[in-house]
User: Fold this.
Amino acid sequence: MKRWLLIPLLAILASTAFAADNLRVGYVRVMDDAQAMLAYEAGLYEKHGLDAELIEFTSGTDLIKAIVGGQLDIGVLGFSNAFTWVSKGADLKIVGGAQRGYHSLLVRKDSGIESVEDLKGKNLASQKQGSTADIVLKGVMLSEAGLEPSDLNIMGVAPAVAVQSLVGGRVDAAFLFEPYDRIAQLVAPVEQIYEIGEVWPFPCMVVITSGETLEKRKDVIWAALDAQREAIEMLENEPAKAAPLITDYFIKEPTLKTLEHGEMASVDVIEAAIETQDFSARLTEDDIARMKELAGIMQEQNILQVAGEFDVDALLDLSWQQDRNP
Assistant:
């Protein structure tokens, strides 16, 4: 072979041999999904040999549809969506952890609400019906307070709309997660009176893929989990390093105008929000037990319509964490 032909041929072979695997990652713009955003922004997917595309969805419901339809390889979202689709015959697998639930009940200071029981007859902004937040709101927080959902007016809205509704006094309270909880406390006359993670911890967000994708692209999925584990380690141990990389996902302006503290650097708001979270790449036995408990709540709410006990174990493929021992 002529020398002048050999050099470009070797270059082509080298580029082919070391080409990154494509990875399509779905996420929702909430702090619960910070590991997906941070793994992308910090170059961790690339570090693990992946050419990642980060695709935003406005709800976990839309995200899970994309996984079922083959438009995504992996997603970070609430496991309740997976339960619903599996009950309809979808082949899905929960392959790792993400974040344990942080859902805060904020009330306007002029509302007269001092406890969850005081929500009776009030207006509350929360998430869409059937979402993980909606399930724990009705099945845990209200239930333990002896309230029925019909005892108050619950409005399912986007988190940013909930914050503005608190600011404008259109609602008395809101059930929010970070960073919208943090933002609301800075820009609205509200106070936090309840946080579900303190009294009823559960694995709010998990990593989900399809059974077919896991079978055909196991090495890619595991590399994605490796990258997200590194992101979680940064979130847990170095929030000041992580915050600048993901602040723009939540607050576009460099500062946030607050009620009591004047202008506050947006990156400081996000750093504080990160510090409230409990991120974990691993699903524990307690996490799995909680998932089974929530499956029962979903059946009681007629969201999950199956005969007998829903088989949570059939969805779990924890071979990555068993091998990597995160």
Q: What stands out?
A: Residues 1-7, 9-18 have pLDDT under 50 and may be disordered.
